[in-house]
Amino acid sequence: MTLWTAADAAAATGGRALQDFEVDGLSIDTRSIRPGDMFIALTAARDGHEFVADALSKGAAAAMVSHIPEGVSDDAPLLLVDDVLPALEDLGRAGRARTGAKVVAITGSVGKTSTKEMMRTVFSAQGRTHAAEASFNNHWGVPLTLARMPQDTEFAIVEIGMNHPGEIGPLARMARPDAAMITTVGAAHLAAFDDLAAIAREKASIFEGLEPGGLAVINGDLETTPILLDAARDAGAQIVTFGTGARNHHRLTDVTLSRDSTVARARGWRTPLLLKVGAAGRHFAMNALGVLALVHRIGADRARALCALAAWGAPEGRGQREKIVMDLVEEQLSFELIDDAFNANPTSMAAALEVLSASEPVHGLGRVEAGRRIAVLGDMLELGDSEEELHAALAGLDAMQGLDRVHCVGPRMRALHAALPEERRGRWAETASELAKNASGLVDAGDIVLVKGSKGSRVSLVVDALRKLGHRQPTETEGDA
């Protein structure tokens, strides 16, 4: 199906097509480009114009460029624009303008991507759905998501992130959502913000892009909820809240965690609800309730949404659970790995540790008689001047009391390592690669191991090393999905 013709792309961007073309996709990376894509020559760490010839040789049907690159013929299928990033933004606006889809935007300090994937699962069961790839939520990810949207899309989900002030509002105005959801506001990116209130105001700027009479879905349990509500009212939005507090429109009343799922009871507009998600975590149930609140108010089918949520599982790197079998013959000689290595801040760390604390290891299998709950925690980045205090404070979380061993990675995590009681204190390593070399000494059969840290801490290296101790088996939830 044609996504953009040369004429439409030129009209949207104010560019000039050197020859006629039709493309059925867009790509910014020649490593994953597919025949029929248009390559977008963005300039980031490297100038994308250096890769145009490679893209065309791999079957790209066109390339968006600001000049004809060296080694590329002047009769190649190029779309010449003044500046590639602004042109991509124009293409995204045009992609949004030409569709009749219900567009949903999502932001929050924690849970953006996993909740976006919940929405993808829910809306895909009800119509043609388009959603942001991976964590494409920044100044190029949002316009790329919009520009990739097929014209016949019925539901679209746009993730919007930030790491400094002034990012979210312009992206929201570009996306023009019919509904916007804020999962939570937490101590993330404090290096760029004065305090939690400043973070809340930035998150709340997502409502600036709402279509007239649009819907604002807000976590009603936060210290900063009044800031979010005021911003939604200023935008003229309809408002629906979710949380555990009695005043919320959708209210979580009970949560039960199991190995591979979470079951929760809730009330939505005075209607009793029983919801299930295919991943363990109170935070997953909370965000699923927010999704249901949004679904209900934009006119989608809530019963079908409840069924779809039960099939959803956590994406890789965001709480996905897997069994690592350490013996080819005796399959019970295994440990469970919780891969949450993509992102971390104090709020998400507390949620992940709660999941680990509630998990049940298997006893009597390994060298250590009792199965253990083990955490491997990497630095939480971009927390500003209070980073040492925030890392050390993790030692006081209730969930920590249920853990057997905590290994720490990175200079910031040294503060937590020092704050832990001796019986719970594991190893500390300056780098993830250093700890990964000793992966075999971290775990035993019957253990449950959580690995979590900011992406920049590179604790995914520890995840990879732990996987290499055996072979992976999907959890029952993953296999069913």
UniProtKB/TrEMBL annotation:
Coiled coil: none annotated. Keywords: ATP-binding, Cell cycle, Cell division, Cell shape, Cell wall biogenesis/degradation, Cytoplasm, Ligase, Nucleotide-binding, Peptidoglycan synthesis. NCBIfam families: murF. GO terms for molecular function: ATP binding; UDP-N-acetylmuramoyl-tripeptide-D-alanyl-D-alanine ligase activity; UDP-N-acetylmuramoylalanyl-D-glutamyl-2,6-diaminopimelate-D-alanyl-D-alanine ligase activity. The keyword Nucleotide-binding applies. Its EC number is 6.3.2.10. Belongs to the MurCDEF family. MurF subfamily. InterPro entries: Mur-like_cat_sf (IPR036565), Mur_ligase_C (IPR004101), Mur_ligase_C_dom_sf (IPR036615), Mur_ligase_cen (IPR013221), MurCDEF_CellWall_CoF430Synth (IPR051046), MurE/MurF_N (IPR035911), UDP-N-AcMur_synth (IPR005863). Its main location: cytoplasm. It holds the Pfam family Mur_ligase_C. GO terms for cellular component: cytoplasm. ATP binds at residues 108-114. Pathway: Cell wall biogenesis; peptidoglycan biosynthesis. It is found in: Cytoplasm. It comes from the Bacteria. One of its GO terms (biological process) is cell wall organization. Involved in cell wall formation. Catalyzes the final step in the synthesis of UDP-N-acetylmuramoyl-pentapeptide, the precursor of murein. It comes from Tranquillimonas rosea. This is UDP-N-acetylmuramoyl-tripeptide--D-alanyl-D-alanine ligase.
